[in-house]
Structures are given as structure tokens and as C-alpha cells.
Design goal:
GO molecular function: phosphate ion binding
Pfam families: PBP_like_2 (PF12849)
InterPro entries: PBP_domain, Phos-bd, Phosphate_ABC_transporter
Subcellular location: Cell membrane
CATH topology of the largest domain: D-Maltodextrin-Binding Protein, domain 2
Radius of gyration: 25 Å
Organism: Mesobacillus zeae
Number of helices: 13
């Protein structure tokens, strides 16, 4: 009798285990939506070019999407620069997205209209223009906003470090930055220097990696680019803290915000979606929505300040409306 009861109990436990497994844990498996709904498996390509500043963010996003979301989709991310990227975006059968560290210009909007391209703006994160110096530079830990402007314009005879402050070395300042293909150059020219032309002596480069290498080898160098790129090269260069009038502010995710202490040098960064491509290629729209839904997490991972929740929600709702 005892043996029979023991057998019945074991059978009951086995039945419960089978029922539980059949019901599942409540968590959707890969390829399923919330509530267990199967998500369509997509395939094809998504082609992205543009800003070198936005590149680390978008490259990480693409990696996550192909690994965790849609293994059958190939997301190709390049970094020609914002302006050069728009030239690839604003052509027949151009790129699906253009990353940009500035807003689209009026003349680019006009070109889009001529071609019948609807460029849908997606703000993805916030970035801080960061000024970096050589690791052996032990004097320019902080500079005022005006001193930075004077250095890059070589105004008021600010050609040597000692011209900036008398206790700085009597050595020539070497200035570096990204070239005209980049939205970062345009932000510096338009917003920081108030459209005053950079002198010919500044060394402008296409690749940010080249800028990092040049500064790391030149004790008297100073360069500018986005915070995200500095964050991934902290072992090679130092960031300058900037005094906007209330004491030096360190560029970091916590200060780079529209109302943060680093706000004068803060800017939004974008990607622009070709709405026509989104309608023709379901993977393109799916990637756009995935990007916004995961933008805050990836921003923090790649050296950007995340957008507020309400901004992300509004953009996702607009993209969902394209379905």
C-alpha cells in the first residue's frame, strides 16, 4: 500500500513538471514577442554611413541587433563623416540611414525633395565636444571657454602655450581636429567659434584614430572630437576640463546634458532614416525601432549621454506609425 502511494505521488509530481514546462516561465523565447507571439524572422541588409562621432554607438547597436534580434539581417556601418555620408544618402538607391553629428542642412533637404527622398530625423543620444591633450601635458588640465576659442583661432597672439598663461611652457601650440566632412568640424566652426575661420596652421584629419595618434605623440598638441571617441581612448590622451564661468567642468556622461554643467559644448547626435527604404525593406524599419528602444543603454555603453524617456517614446511612436 505504501509503495502504491509513493508511486502515485511521484506520478503527480511528474505531471506538474510537465504542465509547468508546457506553460513556460512567462518569458518570451528568442524570436518571440511579449505574450509569446512569434516575431517574424527577417533577412537582407541594412546600410548605414555617416558620422564618425556616431559610429561607436551605431556599430555597437548593429552588433547587438544581429546577435540578439535578427541573425538573418546584415547591418553594415561605415563612417565617411556626416557631410560625406549625406552625399551617399541623398542619391537614388542610397544608404538606408545616415548618421549625423549635426542636423540636416537646408540645401540637403532641398536635394532630398528633388530626389523624392523623405529623410526622417531620429535623435539618438547627446554628445559633448571634448578637447584632448597629450598624456605628458601637465599644465592644461583645465582651460576657460575663451582660452579654447583663442587657441584654435590663434587670436590675440595665442600661438605658444605661454601666450595663453604665463606659467605655461614657452612652446608652440599644435592644434588638430576633424576635417570638413565631419559634423563635429561644423559644430566647432558654427557654435563654438561663431563662424570665424580656422587658421591654416590647424591640422585637420578625416579619421579620428589619426587624431588620437597625433596627439598621443605630440606633447604640445590639443585636438577636439566627440566625447564618445575620447572615452574609448582614455589610455592615450587626457581630456581638458572646461571653465564656462563657474569653475572647471569635466566632460563625462553625467555633465553632458541639455541642462548639464557641460551644456555649452553639448549637442544632440542623430541618424536619418530614408522612409522609402523603410517601406520597401521591413528590416530597415525594424532596425530603426530597435535602435530607439535600445538607445539609452547603448549610449551609456559607448560614451554618450542617453536621451530622456519622453524623447525616446515620441520617436518610437513616430516610427511605429510608418508601418
Amino acid at each position: 500500500m505504501k509503495r502504491s502511494k509513493k508511486f502515485s505521488l511521484l506520478a503527480l509530481l511528474a505531471a506538474i513538471m510537465v504542465f509547468t514546462a508546457a506553460c513556460g516561465s512567462g518569458e518570451p523565447a528568442k524570436g518571440e514577442g511579449k505574450g509569446g507571439n512569434e516575431k517574424a524572422e527577417l533577412e537582407g541588409s541594412v546600410v548605414i554611413d555617416g558620422s564618425g562621432t556616431v559610429y561607436p554607438f551605431m556599430a555597437k547597436m548593429a552588433e547587438n541587433y544581429m546577435t540578439n534580434e535578427q541573425e538573418g539581417v546584415s547591418v553594415e556601418v561605415s563612417r565617411a563623416g556626416t557631410s560625406a555620408g549625406f552625399k551617399k544618402f541623398l542619391v537614388k538607391d542610397g544608404t538606408d540611414f545616415n548618421n549625423a553629428s549635426r542636423e540636416i542642412k537646408d540645401e540637403e533637404k532641398t536635394e532630398a525633395e528633388k530626389l523624392g527622398i523623405e529623410a526622417h530625423e531620429m535623435k539618438v543620444a547627446l554628445d559633448g565636444l571634448t578637447f584632448v591633450v597629450n598624456k605628458d601635458n601637465d599644465w592644461a588640465d583645465d582651460l576657460t571657454q575663451q582660452e579654447i576659442v583663442d587657441i584654435f583661432l590663434a587670436e590675440k597672439d595665442k600661438k605658444k602655450w605661454s601666450d595663453v598663461r604665463s606659467d605655461f611652457p614657452d612652446e608652440p601650440i599644435k592644434t588638430y581636429g576633424p576635417n570638413e566632412n565631419h559634423g563635429t568640424y561644423e559644430f566647432m566652426f558654427e557654435k563654438i567659434l561663431e563662424e570665424k575661420a580656422l587658421p591654416e596652421k590647424i591640422n585637420l584629419q578625416q579619421d579620428y584614430s589619426t587624431l588620437v595618434d597625433l596627439v598621443s605623440k605630440d606633447k604640445n598638441a590639443i585636438a577636439f572630437f566627440g566625447y564618445g571617441y575620447y572615452a574609448s581612448n582614455k589610455d592615450k590622451v587626457n581630456a581638458v576640463n572646461v571653465d564656462f564661468g563657474k569653475g572647471p567642468v569635466e566632460p563625462k556622461v553625467e555633465t553632458i546634458a541639455e541642462d548639464g554643467d557641460y551644456a555649452p559644448f553639448t549637442r544632440p547626435v542623430f541618424t536619418y532614416l530614408n522612409k522609402g527604404m523603410a517601406k520597401e525593406k521591413p528590416q530597415v524599419l525594424d532596425y530603426a525601432i530597435y535602435t530607439m528602444n535600445n538607445s539609452q543603454e547603448v549610449a551609456k555603453e559607448t560614451g554618450f549621454a542617453p536621451l530622456p524617456d519622453e524623447d525616446v517614446k515620441a520617436t518610437v511612436e513616430a516610427l511605429e506609425g510608418l508601418k
